[in-house]
């Protein structure tokens, strides 16, 4: 498939597109589901909270609820098989599921580390093992991975969350390199701070805080333009990206100052 000047297929006509949003019971996933339903897409929403998922689609005729736990590989396979039987395939899978709590290194607990990484990283791998064989056989489809600007640099209070999102950034890059030639699109979504039940746990000021609806609008715009990386809000994400590109003697000093600011 030739994508021309764009790194990915431009998803401009959503009518009839079959989109599976995993981790869509609240926040970005829920807002994105509503935005795509409004554009005429068929949208399946998955997560562990059935009631919350039903509230997202609000009995929309093109909405489907499929309850599952991303930490269970068997759930991925069974849910994907059921969706493909109903829809005869999936055009775009969006990996939105995430766990987060502000955490300093000395607050680490083994159980929490396991659970967070199982949700944020392993869950994506379990999903890829379920959906990739069918997409590769069709030589069409797209994968959208929601990482974070927290994956750019070692930000304070992101002891588990930041490294897990850095892993997803790396994964999206290699997926694009490996799958582009097979006709698949890979989209990396790097939000800044978005108002949600997860960010509500933060006790510090969050610069350029966005609404989930604003985040969904930015994601749809990026998908429609065929971008590989969809990062927003741009002013904030560019600043964090710039810090990541500085020499360590500079960037680590800036991060130490930021950490002291969080502690004050």
From TrEMBL:
InterPro entries xrefs: NAD(P)-bd_dom_sf (IPR036291), SDR_fam (IPR002347)
Keywords: Oxidoreductase
Phylogenetic placement of the source organism: Bacteria, Pseudomonadati, Pseudomonadota, Betaproteobacteria, Burkholderiales
Record SUPFAM superfamilies: NAD(P)-binding Rossmann-fold domains
Domain of life: Bacteria
Protein name (record): Short-chain dehydrogenase/reductase SDR
Family the entry assigns: Belongs to the short-chain dehydrogenases/reductases (SDR) family.
């Amino acid at each position: 498939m030739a994508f021309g000047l764009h790194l990915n297929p431009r998803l401009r006509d959503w009518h009839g597109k079959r989109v599976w949003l995993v981790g869509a019971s609240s926040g970005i996933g829920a807002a994105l589901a509503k935005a795509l339903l409004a554009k005429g897409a068929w949208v399946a929403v998955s997560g562990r909270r059935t009631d919350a998922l039903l509230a997202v689609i609000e009995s929309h005729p093109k909405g489907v609820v499929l309850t599952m736990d991303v930490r269970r590989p068997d759930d991925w396979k069974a849910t994907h098989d059921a969706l493909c039987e109903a829809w005869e395939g999936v055009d775009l899978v969006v990996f939105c599921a995430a766990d987060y709590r502000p955490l300093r290194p000395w607050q680490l607990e083994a159980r929490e580390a396991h659970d967070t990484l199982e949700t944020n990283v392993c869950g994506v791998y379990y999903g890829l093992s379920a959906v990739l064989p069918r997409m590769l056989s069709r030589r069409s489809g797209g994968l959208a991975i929601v990482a974070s600007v927290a994956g750019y640099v070692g930000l304070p209070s992101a002891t588990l969350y930041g490294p897990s999102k850095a892993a997803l950034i790396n994964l999206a890059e290699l997926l694009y390199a490996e799958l582009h030639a097979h006709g698949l699109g890979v989209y990396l979504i790097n939000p800044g701070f978005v108002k949600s039940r997860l960010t509500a746990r933060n006790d510090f000021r969050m610069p350029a805080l966005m609404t989930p609806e604003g985040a969904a609008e930015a994601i749809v715009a990026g998908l429609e333009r065929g971008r590989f990386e969809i990062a927003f809000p741009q002013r904030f994400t560019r600043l964090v990206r710039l810090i990541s590109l500085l020499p360590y003697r500079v960037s680590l000093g800036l991060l130490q100052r930021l950490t002291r600011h969080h502690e004050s």
